[in-house]
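Pilot study result, target chain (413 residues):
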Amino acid sequence: MYQIYNLISILASHLIKLLAVFSPKLSLFVEGRKEVFKRLHEHIAPNDRTIWFHAASLGEYEQGVPVIEKIKHEYPEHKIVITFFSPSGYEVRKNNTLADVTVYLPLDTQSNAENFIQAIHPEMVFFIKYEFWPNYLKALKNNNIKTYLISGIFREDQLFFKWYGGFYRAALHSFDYFFVQNENSKKLIQSIGFSNVKISGDTRFDRVLAILQQDNTLDFIDQFKNNQTTIVIGSSWPKDESYLMDFINKASDDIKFIIAPHNIKPDQIAALQNSCTKNVVLFSEKKNTNLSEYNVFIIDTIGILTKIYSYADLAYVGGGFGNPGVHNILEPATFGIPIVIGPNYSHFAEAIALVNMGGCVSISNETELNTTFNLLLQNDAICHEKGHICSTFVQMNKGATSTIINHICNTAH
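Predicted structure:
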């Protein structure tokens, strides 16, 4: 099976190069990997002590930030290497200040894995949430490198838990310890013979709570909001927007809307802008503009949505009408505001919990959206109660980072 996997990996690497000609995203995927080993040799010397963190994409990186920060504090003499698999993570965070070098993870071929491990020679490795690459895990185990899974999630439909998943189950033996988010994940990994597991919770709670300690002021949002009720629509997709726009266009001028789409390609921004009959302004047009005169503010840039949520009286988080589902609801939750999402959230434990607790409302169609928005806008008591549930939920689930760091430091020294 191992030989078959290696053959598939090699064939996939060639196929991706061919497909990249027709796909801008795959082109980034391929081009970004061409300079990886050169950059590693420029930043990592043979005698450097290193620690490696791997994130699939942006969400996993944000999840790992609290642990990376603590590890940097505990091991200041080590260099930090961060890798991404996806362009949507790497392109946004390639210039982060946490790592000494940030690169794409080369595809999981045997030679790539061996060369990569040799180039960075890490003392510890952290995989965030998921992504289990057999060749990399085998190389780590062969070199006796301590390897951890943090904020891990296991589900019954994964290959590890199928009768034919022996090859992938074997790869899990490379991990020294599994820090998982919940009891179900712990039981699943124990069911296939692993006892080196602890429920630490989700480090994203620590990450979003840190947001409250930073300066979230945005003067231009202050000007736009102008002390009026404001609904923030974050990470929206066209399906979300098709339901939302009718409500926006019919809403009272006393209500302000800030829309931060998931995709900010010019054609999609133009389509969104054209569908709005209110006075609408783009972030890219805000200079020398009296923003208080507008009802709708479209954020055609990235990196400021978290701060924008601090101005919301109500948040709608997009993605819930697509696959795999809703985007990050913890960022608005930490500010203590009620949240509305679409129906697809079953893969996200925090969304399931907040819907069940009543802090978050899931809607399935435009009628339900209109009813929910009107109820929350007209009833301050319900709005406040749901917001309180959200902020309390985040506070109750903090501490995953401390659990992970305490275990690692106690076993390392």
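One observation from the pilot: Residues 25 and 87 are 7 Å apart (CA to CA). A full batch analysis is planned for the follow-on phase.
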